Amino acid sequence: MRLQASKTSASKYKRVIEATSSDGRLRGLLQFCGASRTGRWAGRLFQPQNLPRPTHPQGDIDQGIEAMKADVEDLVFDDVMALARSAIRGVIVAPEGGKLVVADLANIEGRAIAWLAGESWKLQAFREYDADIGPDLYKLAYARAFAIRHEDVAKPQRQIGKVMELMLGYEGGVGAFITGAASYNIDLDAMAEAAMPSVPGNVAHEARDFLDWRQVEEMGQFDLADETFIACDSLKRLWRAAHPKVASWWKELEEAARRAILSPGVTTSARSIKMRRDGAWLRIVLPSGRALCYPSPAVDESGKVSYMGINQYSRKWQRLKTYGGKLAENITQAVARDVLASSMQPIEDAGYRIVLTVHDEIIAEAPDAPEFNPDHLASLMATAPSWAEGLPLAAAGFEAYRYRKD
Question: How far apart are CA 338 and CA 164, in angstroms?
Fold first, then answer.
């Protein structure tokens, strides 16, 4: 019970109570451009960008909220703290006479990186899926990687395709699978067992050679079994082979950054992305015209790119190394942020009052009338800005009187 009560999600309730104004509204939840690398909003106070995934179905959560309000939750639920973690989103409610209308951009990072890199087959796949004439994207990801028909992709294989899509877009390898396993509750050993029979022999051989090299160099294998490491590395190789434009864009970004740093005042490019060093700043200009800024950029003797920033683990100001995949991540997430931001004024003009954003989701208050609905909000969010011609967008959502995980 002590361990359960000490979880961060449980302490969020106390933070909400302390931070709520006398009129019942909770303000100051987001810091504009709080994410220094991408310009995204950063969560503050009870950290709405970092809420736990519910472990209860929504019906149980609704019942649990009523039980908590009546102070009888312990009579209805065995694990009250688990209920509290699942219900934390419910502290956000619509004002009297209104409702919450919520919509989320669908796979915006996957769409944005395909658009930025010019991965034309992927962009067409998104368009066909949005028009209900194309296959499930996770099935397609697996099918492209393993050179089979998407109709032949079974449910376990679709899950592997989903993992590949979520983990590998930013030059990630085996380490990215470790991160993803923690975030999405993935059993990597089971995934490896399911994937290996379909991995081409030459790809598995290359992955095994890579593991042998790491073992000789004493670089470790993330405490994974040999076969699990080989499976993860094989999936990485297959995904990159299926996304040649994205994989080559990583290298172009790093080379463009290197040339810009070494040639102050000279503009370099990596497809639609422009870079230039002016004084102590490397600026990366996005398609929207906004620039990402990296202070005190440098290139060391081995050609590695670095800049000064705050270490996310130690919170200290120090020199940070970067590479093509990380630059692609910063740029893609920044573009996703700009797409979201571009829809905000039209949304407000349509009568919705935006009260919060959570990653790629907009939470708005609106009059409790049928003309304000999630389909309308989603259509406003999925309208591409003028600078993003050819970027396929889609959004979906829900309306409710109490915020929840859709």
Answer: 25
